[in-house]
Amino acid sequence: MVTEEKKGELLEKLKNAVISYDEDAAKEAAQEVLAVGMNANDAIFNGLVSGMVEVGKMFEAQEYFVPELLMCADALYAGLDILKPHVQQMDLGVRGSVVIGTVEGDVHDIGKNIVKMMFDVAGFQVYDLGRDVPLDKFLEEQIRTDSDLVCLSAMMTTTMTGMKKVIDDLRKKNPNIKIMIGGAPVSQDVADKYGADGYAKDATNALKDAINMVGSLKKMKDEAEAQKAK
Amino acid sequence: MTQQAMTSKQRVMKLFAGEAVDKVPCFSGMGNVTTAGLKSLGHKFAAIHLDAKMMAEAAATSNKLLGIECGVVPFDLCVEAEAMGCEINVYAHSEDLLYPTIKKKLIHGEAEMEIELPADVTARGRVPLLVEAIGLLKKELGDAAPVGSYVLGPFTLAGQIMELNDLLKLSFKKPEKIAKLLDRMTDVIIQVAKVYEKAGVDYLTVREMGATSDVLSPRVFKSLILPYLQKIFAQLSVPSVLHICGKTNDIVPFMATSGATAISVDQKNDVAATRAKLGPQALVFGNYDPYNVLVAGTPELVRTTVHKCLDDGVSAIWPGCDIWPTVPPENVTAMLDEVANYRR
Question: Is residue B3 scored above 60 in pLDDT?
Fold first, then answer.
């Protein structure tokens, strides 16, 4: 049985490995988590993810910029790859599956990848279509996978308008689908006009939104369990 | 004071020369082709990137039809990368407005950073087509309006030929390797800019949006990017503009030392603060939102936005990025009218 002290130490190690973008330290700490028989879910959420939340804050405060963010993400994945096979299947109370991609004409995928990472850590089944994705492909993939969340990214004004068509098509087929859009030119105004449920204007916001979204799914799960217990 | 109104060309060139102008010019150094212009010509968007005549005609309509005080070619951001050997996608199948993109990068990771680049970039890809288009556009616009073109900045160009992920991480981990690559990009950019100058452009914009403070720290901008921008601007003989979008307030003092005749910022910049930092003489172009204001906004929003830009102290009314083609002509009219009637 792992002591609370050891647990706290390992969580701190994981968190710091992400913050100081140290892939080796993240791997080491993750191995240790497994060796001492600590819960992998706990290590991911309270270690790696809390590190990333801290990174998000530093990004917002302009202590970190995109290069640092990418390196932190690498460290997170280094730990996650080791821990993931040991994660107990999470019952989120909703189907955790998401289609994600950058719209046609746009070859930027960094923001998209950051959001994808958050879904990865949350244990979502992620269908990543990549970048420069033909608009019809989003609907096709949503139908094929029966996902209930679709995330669209566009980094340029010149490609943002393509998202409207995708949203219209998705809504026509499936009025209840949740759609999140993101990218530098996106605003609340654009999200409203296009009929999206959520938006993230940059990587920090994407990170926050993804965390919030995962958080609200957890809440839904807790509520579902509370219902069951009654 | 001359009694006769200046032509757009006189106005813009005088502005660059630091001379008095009769009113603030309303122009751009980035793409500003419009669907209204394309419709008048019967050209398809996907076709105008590949034909010098269509390109020049389409660029000219922004001035002739809508009154924007310039003509600018090209419309996409792939010319230099294509000349270095990247294949581009013009989305010929699509009826939508899709700008050409790079299909395949040249560099896939650190190991490939030393790859050989063609020595004769100006003879490759669409550079000769651009040279022809610039000549045709000059004929189209004559003395009425200036002809502009643009090249990418070294960091942004590096991002076209190499995976951005790698470029960004290496610029932090191994800046000396990236510096070497940027130096090679700088040579390519200077070569291309020189043939555009020879073809007769009146001004050139260097678009270095990859180095925005949304992505890179001001410290890295200053140490890694700025020296190469300075090298480029030192080689240009026509008036020049350095454009960076996104967050730029912390780097405008560096931008001002790049050697560019003017700097260009977008709607995220607090221009009143920039003006205070750089003083009354600096040429600061900007900074309206070309999509949310000029395309999606009402004429009233266009007017209040333009008014605020002028109050804040811009030297030219100039968009934060390429103008999205579906711009309603009445919004351009409102913009021009607001500038003409502006009284502080």
Answer: no
